[in-house]
Specification:
Elements (H helix, E strand, L loop, with lengths): L13 H9 L5 E5 L3 H10 L9 E4 L4 H6 L2 H15 L4 E5 L1 H6 L3 H12 L3 E4 L7 H16 L12 E5 L3 H4 L4 H11 L3 E6 L5 H5 L6 E4 L5 H11 L3 E3 L7 H14 L3 E2 L11 E4 L2 H15 L3 E5 L3 H4 L6 E2 L3 H8 L4 E4 L12 E4 L3 H4 L13 H5 L4
Parallel strand pairs: 1-2, 1-3, 3-4, 5-6, 5-7, 7-8, 8-9, 10-11, 10-13, 11-12, 13-14
Helix pairs in contact: 1-2, 1-7, 4-6, 7-11
């Protein structure tokens, strides 16, 4: 049966994706759920939980509340907490139970906004889709509601917004620092990062950037909003160390022409020497780097079908376990999170590359600086 996970992983859900994207934005995120979604998020999906405070709450939905539709309790508790903590906004996140009972979140949001007089945003999550969907919704909201429309400053140096940065894709090591340092070394200013390490005030100033660099599929809808609203072009791709010259040229080209760019070329054709399994933007960028540096032809299998909906091309979008296993039989190499190792054939050289959104904290100690992935691959390829 398709879409049945027997031994393979499921990715972080859309509920956690919203929470991760909004974690540092000064708002109050309320997951309407008995308690399971919050414990999964803070123990497996959020490495910032233990050393950086954020207002992430669970409603504590009871069986009777769900059956009888006791929305007044949720509204009362949110208003009480908001008056005490004074967040800049409230985000309502839906879990599977209120989805099935048909709770009207939009109506609840209007009532809450009338009582506390701050923005209230509703995210129609289901708990059944991946983090890509949830984080993308949150970043899109930020691009629509939190970014001002100030004209771009003419300072000579091109400035860059980094879009799609969460620990679910980058973890909490040195990856983001390495990307930012490299951009600065090549003459780019870092304007704002959606949404690790930037304040809400810096996010508001995202309109000052010359280019948006989309690090993962979660940032693509926000990039499209900023292009439509403010005319800021984007470059889609993960700037790996071995591709410095390529991404520098692409960023300057986007800034000069105002046309969107990507950091990978069309598939090189022929039989694949190996497969990369994972998030589309990073995996396609890695595929390009492997071709340029090691002259090996890799194909990308992406189990995150939402990225196909965003129009990211060049992947095999497969979620069925048997289809993935069948593809790997012909390959010499497989690069994937360790949870995919049982899928590998006997002839495969399996290269472990942990992905926080896939295996949570299980293999975090193995995860190095993703910016330097090429150096790690050298001993295998």
């Amino acid at each position: 049966m398709k879409d049945v996970h027997v031994i393979g992983p499921t990715y972080t859900a859309d509920v956690s994706g919203v929470c991760s994207a909004l974690y540092e934005m000064g708002g109050m995120v309320v997951i309407h759920d008995p308690s399971g979604c919050n414990s999964t998020y803070n123990t497996h999906d959020e490495p910032r939980w233990y050393d950086q405070e954020s207002l992430i709450f669970i409603s504590g939905l009871s069986q009777m509340d769900a059956l009888m539709g006791n929305d007044e309790k949720l509204i009362r508790d949110i208003c009480k907490a908001a008056r005490f903590y004074q967040p800049s906004f409230v985000a309502l996140v839906r879990s599977p139970i209120p989805l099935m009972t048909g709770m009207d979140f939009e109506a609840a949001a209007r009532v809450i906004k009338e009582q506390i007089h701050i923005p209230v945003y509703v995210f129609p999550t289901t708990g059944m889709r991946s983090y890509v969907s949830g984080a993308a919704m949150a970043f899109q909201m930020m691009a629509e509601k939190m970014v001002s429309e100030k004209p771009v400053k003419d300072e000579g140096k091109p400035s860059v917004n980094l879009l799609g940065a969460t620990p679910l894709d980058l973890s909490i090591g040195t990856t983001l620092d390495s990307i930012q340092k490299s951009l600065k070394l090549y003459g780019f200013e870092i304007n704002a990062t959606f949404a690790m390490g930037s304040t809400p005030g810096e996010i508001a100033e995202a309109s000052q950037a010359s280019i948006n660099l989309v690090l993962s599929g979660t940032g693509l809808p926000a990039a499209r909003v900023l292009k439509e609203r403010l005319g800021i072009p984007c470059v889609v791709g993960f700037p790996l160390e071995e591709m410095q010259e390529m991404w520098r040229k692409k960023l300057l080209l986007a800034a000069g022409t105002k046309e969107d760019q990507v950091l990978w070329e069309e598939n090189n054709g022929g039989d694949a020497d190996g497969y990369i399994i994972g998030e589309a933007v990073f995996s396609l960028s890695l595929r390009e780097m492997i071709w340029q540096k090691f002259h090996k032809n890799f194909a990308v299998i992406c189990p995150l079908l939402e990225e196909k909906e965003f129009g990211i091309l060049g992947c095999l979008y497969l979620r069925d376990e048997e289809e993935i296993r069948e593809k790997l039989k012909t390959a010499d190499y497989v690069i994937a999170d360790p949870l995919y190792e049982p899928f590998a054939a006997e002839k495969n050289c399996f290269i472990r590359l942990p992905h926080e959104a896939c295996s949570g904290r299980c293999f975090r100690k193995e995860l190095g600086d993703l910016y330097q992935t090429g150096s790690m691959l050298g001993k295998y390829l």
